Amino acid sequence: MNENLTKELEIQTQNFTPLITEYCRFESVAAQKRMMPETANWVENLLKETGFETRQLEVAGSPNYVYGHIKGKSDFTLLLYNHYDVQPETPIELWNSSPFEVTERDGKLVARGICDNKAELISRICAIRAIQAAQGELPINIKWIIEGEEEIGSVHFDVMTRQYGDLLKADGTLWEGGGFNEKGQAALALGFRGMLYVEYSVETMKVDAHSGGAHALPSAAWRLVKALSSLKDENGRILIPGFYDDVREPTEMEKQASRDNVDLEQETRTKEMYGIDSFLHNRSGYDLELSVYEPTANIAGFLSGYTEPGVKTVLPAKAMAKMDFRLVPNQRPDDILEKLQAHLKAQGFDDVQVKKLGNGDPVVTPIEGPFVQRMIQICQAFTDQEPEVMPLVGGTLPLLGAMKNNVGVLGISTSGNPAYYGSGAHAPNEHIRVRDIPRAIQFNVFMFTELGTL
Ligand SMILES: [Zn+2]
């Protein structure tokens, strides 16, 4: 790295904290539609001040998307994605400082939304500004899409990509990313599981009854418990007929990546974090890594009857549960919903209503593709060690299906966000470590520069 760039990097690293402080003051809680236009305007202005041509993309019922485009030296166009919305700050009493005021404590910057995902946007901005100050033009073209609904499931992303898909075409795409892992490796996530989120409800009577009548009156709680237990066996196998029809085997390269990612120390840390002695079905090592290729049925919540302290002898008329199915390639959420409904009917649970609350396709960028291979090289060159490649991550990015289906663009996630495994996304006292900031900015500078040498 030349002297000029090193100097500009230092300057931009100094600028990081004031910028992130300003950004985090916007209480951009999507679930409560707080300060969304103000935040979008601030982000648009930040891009504009960085030399981007900008506009806000309007979609009915959605906070505006911020879009920016800047030309660079080479023909390569990189699409960046970030989101300006954050999770609600509740429970507020668990915060040690005001959630929307960046507070430095023990080498950490604490604020709602800082790791998820405001700090990544600022480190990308700082990297771009450092290159511009040192070299003038950027090495590549950059397009940037920043949404305000990620934390509520990117509900309008599909519509947005149908309306504005042409703006988003690119040679490579980077979704929001994480930091470097504890071994200092860069991390690449190539795919995410899909999801079907449903709400079940049962109503067996018009009103709750005295439980003295339990010998004669139907319990909604028991109905729902029975219906749910028909979905899964003791070994975790999901019993819906046809559920596994479209599941594809992991490829040889994916299996190899799972083998490379075995980390027994990390397993111990995770078990300690949750206070458990073993993982489900005693899984460990390669077996545990590979199990991400299995779909799941998770009860996210269950509500029925009397749940407050003490005794109330009631027979509940209503019961409700929420469930997320994490889906793997090539399962499709609507197909699974149909199969779920058919299963409940066949088992005699006609009275159990199923309502879809959300969905997302599983999307995987092939490991052997040119952009992925180039990014692996870049990560290796930057860290001097092989990156951690995760072909499939357990969670879901609902926007990926929309990008794949409507724009024809896949993408990956990588390091470059000054976050770490303990950042506490969505939790009270969400934070980043101050010491991770310079490296995140340096990585982005290095990556933008290297992509320009293709
Ligand atoms: Zn989040």
Write the layout of secondary structure elements.
Elements: H1 3-24, H2 36-49, E1 53-57, E2 65-70, E3 77-83, E4 103-105, E5 108-110, H3 114-135, E6 141-147, H4 157-164, E7 172-174, E8 187-189, E9 191-192, E10 194-203, E11 209-210, H5 220-229, H6 252-260, H7 264-274, H8 285-290, E12 296-304, E13 314-315, E14 318-327, H9 333-346, E15 353-360, E16 363-364, H10 370-383, E17 388-390, H11 399-407, E18 431-433, H12 437-451
Parallel strand pairs: 3-6, 3-7, 8-17
Antiparallel strand pairs: 1-2, 2-6, 4-5, 5-18, 9-16, 10-14, 10-15, 11-13, 12-14
This protein binds zinc ion.
Distance between the termini: 18 Å
Bound molecules: zinc ion
Q: What's the β-strand tally?
A: 18
**Helical residues, percent:** 25-40%
Helix segment count? 12
Which ranges are low-confidence, i.e. pLDDT below 50, for 5 or more consecutive residues? none
* SSE-based structural type: alpha+beta
The overall pLDDT, averaged over residues, is: 96
Q: Give a short account of the largest sheet.
A: 5 strands, mixed
Proportion of β residues? 15-25%
The H/E string reads: HHEEEEEHEHEEEEEHHHHEEEHEEHEHEH
What form results from the Cα inertia axes?
globular
- Order of strands, main sheet, comes to 1-2-6-3-7
Radius of gyration: 24 Å
